Amino acid sequence: MNILFFGTKSYDKEFFETLLKSGRYHDLEITFIEPKLEPETARLADGYEAVCAFVNMDLSEKTIRILAKCGVKLVLMRCAGFNNVDLDAAKECGITVMRVPGYSPEAVAEHAMALVLTADRHMHKAYIKCRENNFNLAGLMGVNLYGKTAGIVGTGKIGAAMAKICHGFGMRVIGYDLYPNKSLDFVEYVDFEHLLAESDLISLHCPLTEENYHMINEDTIGKMKDGVMLVNTSRGALIKTEDLIQGIRDGKFFAVGLDVYEEENGTVYEDMSDTILEHSTMARLLSFPNVMVTSHQGFFTQEALEAISQTTLDNALAFVEGKKNGNEL
Ligand code: NAI
To answer: What is the phi-psi region of residue 217: left when phi exceeds 0, alpha when psi lies from -120 to 50, beta otherwise?
Structure first.
């Protein structure tokens, strides 16, 4: 099977090529290209049976129909989330979509906690101050996590890992999920309203769906405790950014950590340091001293990249051999 690999970064190539050399995947041939998959680039897949895409690409109906015309039969998402894929269009076009569920939940959960600790204890400011020989502590005071309440929204694989980390910090952990995770015996399940009202730290770990689009908005922010910490490593559109910015301005939040944000698609994974950004949202978020932003890097550990490349290639192999392995969407 020949696979066109869109949006290649040096680290993708390194991890995938190492596995390809192992010999186990001799039925697979990968061509790595830099452009992201979107309607304008989809035609590059002409003659390929499969394409490999990522979270920052546009797999809307338009792209899917072009891929189908090119003869593509399989879309390999090298990520867990798939809200950027029009699955109905894929089904209609006879294209199978496969993903990598749960490659390293700890990678994302540990990043979520890194955001909490950085924003809470002002590590980003402290680092710069010390480098400038400014050893004054003004502006660096944080709050203890020990003894506080962590509210985990979505207690699947990543949420469960985050719940365990918070538990390890000596926090009371409450959770909200449509399907409570029975293995988490230290988590008290509550409804969303109670989670908002009781949490000192709220961490979002549910997928983005039509139902929970903008679940954090003016109304739900109003129900949170004053001085709450909010972390989002899930998907940007879970939060209505304009309302978040207003909440930050009103002094509602002690700290905010964002690995994902609305409008990230044009910028994420790109070096935009020489560019005047089209939207002012990011600049406004970065202007707040208690906000920490990273660029969708929760997944970015060696262990996660190994697991992603292995499962992606296993998915392709299962498809070639006509087997179902449970990673089909
Ligand atoms: P998962 O499928 O194991 O868990 C998701 C949980 O959310 C499930 O328990 C589900 O019942 C629950 N859920 C669904 N809708 C909900 C709602 N409206 N309210 C409350 N709970 C709801 O998924 P996993 O692996 O834990 O990933 C979670 C999300 O993390 C992904 O959907 C993706 O958006 C994001 N992610 C972010 C990464 C990053 O690099 N920042 C990397 C990987 C995933």
So the answer is: beta
Separation of CA 205 and ligand 1 centre (Å): 5
How far is Cα 232 from Cα 114, in angstroms, rounded to an integer?
A: 12
pLDDT at 283: 87
205 is annotated as an active-site residue: no
Q: At what angle do helices 302-320 and 105-121 cross, to 10 degrees?
A: 150
Which 8-state DSSP code applies to residue 231? E
Distance 212 CA to ligand 1 centre (A): 11
Name the nearest CA neighbour of 29 among 327, 306, 325, 316: 316
* 268 vs 293: CA distance, rounded Å: 12
Q: How far is CA 18 from CA 55, 96, 130, 197, 312, in A?
A: 22, 26, 40, 49, 13
Establish whether 249 is a catalytic residue. no
Residue 76's nearest CA partner among 317, 252, 248, 290 is 317
Q: Is 178 in the pocket of ligand 1 (CB under 6 A)?
A: yes
Which residue owns the Cα nearest ligand 1 atom 43?
A: 80
Q: What is the pLDDT of residue 267?
A: 78
Q: 111 an active-site residue? A: no
- Greatest Cα pair distance in the chain: 64
- Position 60 scores a pLDDT of 97
Stretches where the chain sits below pLDDT 70 are none
The answer to pTM > 0.85 is yes
**Ligand 1 center to 158 CA (angstroms):** 7
d(CA 174, CA 159): 11
Show Cβ contacts of residue 73 under 8 Å, excluding neighbours closer than 6 positions.
49, 50, 94, 95, 96, 319
pLDDT > 70: percent of the chain: 100
Ligand 1 within 6 A of CB of 84: no
Cβ neighbour number for residue 162 with a 10 Å cutoff: 31
- Is the CB–ligand 1 distance for residue 99 below 6 Å? no
